Amino acid sequence: MKDEIFKKPISKQFEFDEEVATVFDDMIGRSVPFYKENLALVRDLVIKNLQEDATIYDLGCSTGTLLIEIAKKSDKNLYLKGIDNSAAMLQRAKNKAKAFGVDIEFIYADILEYDFSLANCFIANYTLQFIRPLKREKFVKKIYEKLEDEGVFIFSEKIITEDKRLNKQLIDIYYDFKREQGYSDYEIAQKREALENVLIPYTLKENEEMLLQTGFRFVEPIFRWANFATFFARK
């Protein structure tokens, strides 16, 4: 279903409710540059870095697309677990997984409170940015502690740039991208207002430093387009 949520005046801050879940796959594909290509990059890196019987958590898994893609492509036995605090998103994820005939455990929970088992990989695609800064580093530390040695953490984020002029230029270019995807200026402004104080991005450097200070021995940005980036970290 096509995303037309912000064609009408907003009445609340952005949340992943039933209305958003209904159009989410279209929304993220039209709102995140190179979304499909980046998803394939993360999928392939996950598969290359994991052995038989590895456990993978997708934090804020939404409609389950990434885990489904991993399950479809990998020839290994993997324990795939998707966690989200949106029941509407998880229902769509379960329906999609069933349609593709893949075995994925979807868990309705708050990732900040959930007690993870030891895992070989954590994924967080555009999830950390919704965690308040005071809690974000503590949560990344929790991920680090629940990773097996040599385990990997791969995450994508919207980012900001320290140079204010460049930051404004990158945002303008991003809005041009959204217009090319069919969003109007009104829709762009409405969503920007709905996300105010809900999505709080870090700079590229701040994300890297957060990981290193948490204990990860290796951190590398593996993708960037303007104000979007993906990071790979190994314990």
UniProtKB/TrEMBL annotation:
Domain of life: Bacteria
EC code: 2.1.3.-
UniProt KW rRNA-binding keyword: no
CDD domains membership: AdoMet_MTases (cd02440)
Keyword field: Methyltransferase, S-adenosyl-L-methionine, Transferase
Binding site for S-adenosyl-L-methionine: Y35, G60, C61, S62, D84, N85, D110, I111, N125, R192
UniProt entry tagged with the keyword Methyltransferase: yes
Cited Pfam families: Methyltransf_25
GO molecular function: carboxyl- or carbamoyltransferase activity; methyltransferase activity; S-adenosyl-L-methionine binding
Domain Methyltransferase: from-to ranges: 56-151
Gene3D superfamilies: Vaccinia Virus protein VP39
InterPro entries, sorted: CmoA (IPR005271), Methyltransf_25 (IPR041698), SAM-dependent_MTases_sf (IPR029063)
Enzyme class: transferase
Catalytic activity: prephenate + S-adenosyl-L-methionine = carboxy-S-adenosyl-L-methionine + 3-phenylpyruvate + H2O
Any one GO BP annotation for this protein: tRNA wobble uridine modification
HAMAP family to which the protein is assigned, alphabetical: Cx_SAM_synthase (MF_01589)
Job description of the protein: Catalyzes the conversion of S-adenosyl-L-methionine (SAM) to carboxy-S-adenosyl-L-methionine (Cx-SAM).
Assigned protein family: Belongs to the class I-like SAM-binding methyltransferase superfamily. Cx-SAM synthase family.
Protein name, entry field: Carboxy-S-adenosyl-L-methionine synthase
